[in-house]
Design brief:
- The complex is a heterodimer of chains A (112) and B (116).
- Chain A contains no helices and 11 strands.
- By secondary structure, chain A is mainly beta.
- In chain A, the strands form 2 sheets. In chain A, strands 2, 4, 5, 9, 10 and 11 form a 6-stranded mixed β-sheet that branches. A 5-stranded antiparallel β-sheet of chain A has the order 1-3-8-7-6, with no helix packed on it.
- In chain A, a hairpin with an 8-residue loop joins strand 9 and strand 10 (100-102).
- Chain A is globular and about 40 Å long.
- The relative contact order of chain A is 0.34.
- Chain B has 116 residues and is mainly beta.
- Chain B has strands at 4-7, 10-13, 19-25, 32-38, 45-51, 57-58, 67-73, 76-81, 90-96, 106-107, 111-115.
- In chain B, the strands form 2 sheets. In chain B, strands 2, 4, 5, 6, 9, 10 and 11 form a 7-stranded mixed β-sheet that branches. Chain B has a 4-stranded antiparallel β-sheet with strand order 1-3-8-7, with no helix packed on it.
- Chain B is globular and about 40 Å long.
- The chains are: A mainly beta (112), B mainly beta (116).
- The A-B interface holds A 31-32, 34, 41-46, 49, 87, 91, 93-105 and B 32, 34, 36, 42-46, 49, 91, 93, 95, 97, 100-110, 112.
Chain lengths: 112, 116
């Protein structure tokens, strides 16, 4: 079983649609959680951290359920520029080693 | 925001060549840097953790004699792919964090390595 699992997609949605991505992780000792965005042939860029209380940044909402070991990302009012691969990322490390484990990514294509 | 720079951004070399990739944190000091590799249509896989002033910690299955890591200062880590072969062709990305493990890492812009 992969340590971080995502549905690879692709998700093809029209502009303005709402789309949700899910992610599960296997290690219950995981300490911090993130969503990154990666454009084709580019480095990943941090989209947002994910907290147990849930957090929102504009059109993006992230949720964490520690009991279910489940993370989600909701994108509202999709824009063409949202087309990218979204990486679910978990920090497995205790204390201060900062080791990130990446999911394989979910590809989003927003069409006009 | 934090900036991490990698150089070179693209390398094409003959088989057997050794290739050095630099990772610099431009506006902060990074005690720890990380090296990842990403094959086409796959996710990033951590190769090693680079610690300033000490030996790198390699992930299982990554040959330390093949991928030499040096972290000589708080702003620079280098990865040398020794005697590279076509199967080493990949996208190599470094990252650096400003502080504790729960701080988001900032990624370099990656190095695309192609071995002929």
């Amino acid at each position: 079983r992969k340590e971080v699992e995502q549905d690879p997609g692709p998700f093809n949605v029209p502009e303005g649609a709402t789309v949700a991505f899910n992610c599960t992780y296997s290690n219950s000792a995981s300490q911090s959680f993130f969503w990154y965005r990666q454009d084709c042939r580019k480095e990943p860029k941090l989209l947002m951290s994910v907290y147990s209380s849930g957090n929102e940044d504009g059109r993006f909402t992230a949720q964490l359920n520690r009991a279910s070991q489940y993370i989600s990302l909701l994108i509202r009012d999709s824009k063409l520029s949202d087309s990218a691969t979204y990486l679910c990322v978990v920090n497995m490390a205790p204390s201060n080693t900062g080791k990130l484990i990446f999911g394989q990514g979910t590809t989003l294509q927003v069409k006009p | 925001g934090a900036v991490v720079s990698q150089h070179p951004s693209w390398v094409i070399c003959k088989s057997g060549t050794s290739v050095k990739i630099e990772c610099r944190s431009l506006d902060f000091q990074a005690t720890t840097m990380f090296w990842y590799r990403q094959f086409p249509k796959q996710s990033l896989m951590l190769m090693a953790t680079s610690n300033e002033g000490s030996k790198a910690t390699y992930e299982q299955g990554v040959e330390k004699d093949k991928f030499l890591i040096n972290h000589a200062s708080l702003t620079l880590s280098t990865l040398t792919v020794t005697s590279a072969h076509p199967e080493d062709s990949s996208f190599y990305i470094c990252s650096a964090a400003k502080g504790p493990s729960n701080q988001p890492q900032h990624f370099g812009d990656g190095t695309r390595l192609s071995i002929l």
